[in-house]
Amino acid sequence: MSLLITNAVLDDTSVSIMIDREKITAVYQSDSIQPVFKADTVLDAAGKVAVPTFKNGHTHAAMTLLRGYADDMKLQPWLEEKIWPAEARLTGDHIYWGTRLAALEMIKTGTTFCNDMYFHFPQAWKAYRDSGIKAAVGPAIIDHMNEERTDQILTDLKEKFSEYSGADEKLIFSPAPHAVYTVSEKTLRRIADFCREKGLIVHIHLSETEKEVNDCIAAQGMRPAEYLDSIGFLGPNVIAAHGVWLNDREIELLAEHQVTVVHNPVSNMKLSSGSCFRFGDLNANKVPMMLGTDGCSSNNNLDMCEEMKAAALLQKHHFLDTELMSADEIFSIATGGKTRIYPNISSNIKPGDYADLLLIDPNHYKMVPNFNTISNLVYSCGEEAFDTVICSGEILMQNREVDDEDTVIEEARRCARELVSE
Amino acid sequence: MSLLITNAVLDDTSVSIMIDREKITAVYQSDSIQPVFKADTVLDAAGKVAVPTFKNGHTHAAMTLLRGYADDMKLQPWLEEKIWPAEARLTGDHIYWGTRLAALEMIKTGTTFCNDMYFHFPQAWKAYRDSGIKAAVGPAIIDHMNEERTDQILTDLKEKFSEYSGADEKLIFSPAPHAVYTVSEKTLRRIADFCREKGLIVHIHLSETEKEVNDCIAAQGMRPAEYLDSIGFLGPNVIAAHGVWLNDREIELLAEHQVTVVHNPVSNMKLSSGSCFRFGDLNANKVPMMLGTDGCSSNNNLDMCEEMKAAALLQKHHFLDTELMSADEIFSIATGGKTRIYPNISSNIKPGDYADLLLIDPNHYKMVPNFNTISNLVYSCGEEAFDTVICSGEILMQNREVDDEDTVIEEARRCARELVSE
Questions:
Q1: Interface contact flag, A409 B365, Cβ < 8 Å
Q2: Domain of B395: which CATH number?
Q3: Complex prediction ipTM
Q4: Are residues A127 and A21 in the same domain?
Q5: How far is CA B209 from the centre of its chain?
Q6: Which of A274, B238, B266, B279 has the smallest CB count inside 10 Å?
Q7: Lowest mean pLDDT: which of A338-342, B20-24, B32-36, B206-210?
């Protein structure tokens, strides 16, 4: 399967982009001598601007079913009275359609990859396969600090690893121990060993709240990142969500181990997580980074374009520095350009890269005038200007149309009703 | 001219809405005994959700021409090297098309009113008239603290008042002295007297930066709101933009005089204005409020839906209180429900109100599931879900189409090129 995109604009130059299966094989100027390619499909971009797609570094995709179910509440009542009771009713069917709804929204908003942590992952896996986007997904692991559960968890993990790892080109099997306060040391150590042995990426929450830090100091005599380091958990295969309460020593440890830290500004603000993602210091220390939306119940969408603006504004507000986190910097982070953890995504448009492309309408009013495409993407325009989304060479959206949209919405509505009425 | 909207959803009930000229005359349930109305136009809303439109409390509309021209810079170099030199080239033609581009964006994003402060206001006035939205607009006044200019300014103001005030039902003639640091005491006093005498609304910047406060204390021995009070400027006809550095006494003064304060969270964050709009205290003191986008060069769009989310997130982050500024509260502010300053806008959908309506597609994926329409509007969805915009009974957008869109974009592009290349 090959795809030739003609008349796209890349860095202010009119180009054609040749894609063979999942990768870009050639990029050439429209007014140069034309190579002869026989492509299965030719897509005339008609002057649309090509940029890399967004990569969502941290979400709980199927929580999209709980969008708008409960907002503006204190953290504990919100969790205990609303979110957890609804989640207790989740079935595999709900996860499937909730993840399909999430994937639909991600495609519409220009995202072709997400790192997901939620229940019933095999149904999420199936949903990603059916939607066509790429994802890192695997069992979310919680043992409630009970080390008697470690053996069973590892047995399950190995089983799932055999079944899923490498089973789909677009999907990465990635275990997700929830956090230092929900998973015991023994389980964390065993997961870390297993993942290192098998070359797996591992996804965890880290330093989201002050309580997490204080509880960790009380229990372990160390801050969360120090504790994870002390038990051999940290490494370049670790992706850690939030990182808003990190101190200097923790930033050094994350840099040393090249852990990818995921910033989730909207969720952090909505949940009043306090402090702030120390972008300047993390960046100066060359800590790999991604941007994420977190789940829909604390956001309440999966729109990475909106998340970029929130990130840049939050840095400027919190640290009182208008120059901090420029449009170019956050765009690079949001498209996956500041991490190498996932081997099957691309944040560039050049030969050899995965063909993860977004085509934007330069005539959308929020793109006018067009002084700077990246500034417009970060600070002005949104999904309405996004015309076409290509994920590993596959066209997932064209002219804003995505397959199965009506079915996904209808089924997601049914699932949401079941979740809150049962 | 009358308009009957059938099959709209209002507060979860299917209704018809009858509009006679600019106002709503009847709202009745779809399944009730049907009154017989002879409407000139019938619009089948087909299940779309009706909500009040947004009202933008503070903007510099034609600055939309400078969208993305310069970002992520320190305030002074940004103003001195980029914004001011470009503004110095502004002609009436630029203002007209810049304001048309702004109005196009406002219509598309569900806004039917804005309070505008910028140069060459007669051209902006004409642009609003041609676009169909409502606005408060008038001369932006700066005398660079030179009281010798006061008489000429007042002569001009009176002339413009005679020509414009009451000249258009949708447009409010509203003088805009820029700020306490750009307009002398004498001019401010004379403007205040004139506006009070003529019943005019007056628009000013207030307490945007710490420097403004410190300079005012140095010059006047008082903080900006105290100073404006001391010279008899404050009153219920005053609308003051920003108010991020107010102390308790200033909040009391604004409450006492029922000054409307406009919150511009995105601009405040992008420019690192510091401190924060004290929503909780202003609200407890019953200070009238609006939400605004500020100009496009510090935002970079005019999207009030996005601004609502930024406002709610900023309060929760800055004051560490998840319950502060609920979705319902910011929606009420953003639709004009927390001020009475403008007589020709409406924040409700009931008989007697101005017909300022937005019809939203409930089947848009960001509206799914539909647990709470207002939560979805504030935290999840955006313009893409907005189908129809009605301003004072006139349909300005239907099926997302707005008159003259291509012409406006083409002319705005031309103007933007002229601004930066001359």
A1: yes
A2: 2.30.40.10
A3: 0.97
A4: no
A5: 20
A6: A274
A7: B32-36
> pLDDT tens, B261-311?
999 999 999 999 999 999 999 999 999 999 999 999 999 999 999 999 999
Q: Do B417 and A322 touch (CB under 8 A)?
A: no
The answer to whether the Cβ–Cβ distance between B65 and A369 falls below 8 Å is yes
Verify that B202 and B84 share a domain, yes or no: yes
Q: Which of A288, A305, A334 is the last residue of a domain?
A: A334
Q: Which CATH number belongs to the domain containing residue B287 in this structure?
A: 3.20.20.140
Quote the longest CA-to-CA distance of chain B.
Answer: 68
Secondary structure (DSSP) of A105-163:
HHHHTTEEEEEE--SSHHHHHHHHHHHT-EEEE--EE--TT-GGGHHHHHHHHHHHHHH
The residue out of B284, B299, B334 marking a domain boundary is: B334
Task: Evaluate if pTM is beyond 0.90.
Answer: yes
B43 is written with which tokens?
């619009």
**Residue A252's domain spans which residues?**
62-334
- Residue B356 gets the label, from left (phi > 0), alpha (psi -120 to 50) or beta, of beta
Q: Which residues of A touch B384 (CB under 8 A)?
A: 382-384
Q: How many folded domains does chain B comprise?
A: 2
DSSP A159-213: HHHHHHTTS-TTEEE--EE--TTTS-HHHHHHHHHHHHHHT--EEEEES-SHHHH
Residue A341 lies in a domain: no
Q: Domain check: are B58 and B48 in the same one?
A: no
Contact (CB<8Å) A322/B74 = yes
Range B211-217, long-range pairs (CB < 8 A, 24+ positions): B212/B179, B212/B180, B212/B181, B212/B245, B213/B245, B215/B181, B216/B180, B216/B181
Is residue B375 assigned to a domain?
A: yes
A102 touches chain B (CB under 8 A): no
B362-381 residues touching A, CB cutoff 8 A: 363, 365-366, 368-372, 375-376, 379-381
Same domain (yes/no): B21, B65? no
The owner of tokens 């829909």 is A296
CA dist A293 and A291 (Å) reads 7
Residues 6+ apart with CB under 8 A from A286: A255
Confidence band for A37, pLDDT divided at 50, 70 and 90: confident
CB contact under 8 A, B316 and A381: no
Residue A128 within any structural domain of the chain: yes
A-contacting residues of B 56-75, CB under 8 Å? Answer: 65-69, 71-75
Cβ-defined contact of A312 to B78 (cutoff 8 Å): no
Compute the mean pLDDT over every residue in chain A, rounded to the nearest whole number.
97
Q: How confident is the model at residue B34, as a pLDDT? A: 76
Same domain, B310 and B389: no
Give the DSSP H/E element, type plus range, for residue A11: none
Scanning B229-268 for CB atoms below 8 A from A yields 266, 268
One domain for residues B329 and B354: no
| Residue of A401, A415, A412 whose CA lies nearest to A91 | A415
pLDDT in tens, A354-407: 999 999 999 999 999 999 999 999 999 999 999 999 999 999 999 999 999 999
Residues A321-331 pLDDT 10s: 999 999 999 99
Q: What is the distance in angstroms between the Cα of A268 and the nearest Cα belonging to chain B?
A: 8
Q: Return d(Cα A197, Cα A192) in angstroms, integer.
A: 9
Residues 6+ away with beta carbon under 8 Å from A400: A108, A386, A387
For the cut 70, the answer to whether the pLDDT of residue A186 exceeds it is: yes
Residue B301 included in any domain: yes
Smallest Cα distance from A310 to chain B, Å: 7
Q: Cβ distance B235 to B257 under 8 Å?
A: yes
Same structural domain, B120 and B162:
yes
Task: Mark yes or no for CB contact A306/B309 under 8 Å.
Answer: yes
Q: Considering CB atoms only, which of B72, B296, B381 is closest to A327?
A: B72
A269 to B412: CB separation less than 8 angstroms, yes or no:
no
Q: Min CA distance, A370 vs chain B (Å)?
A: 7
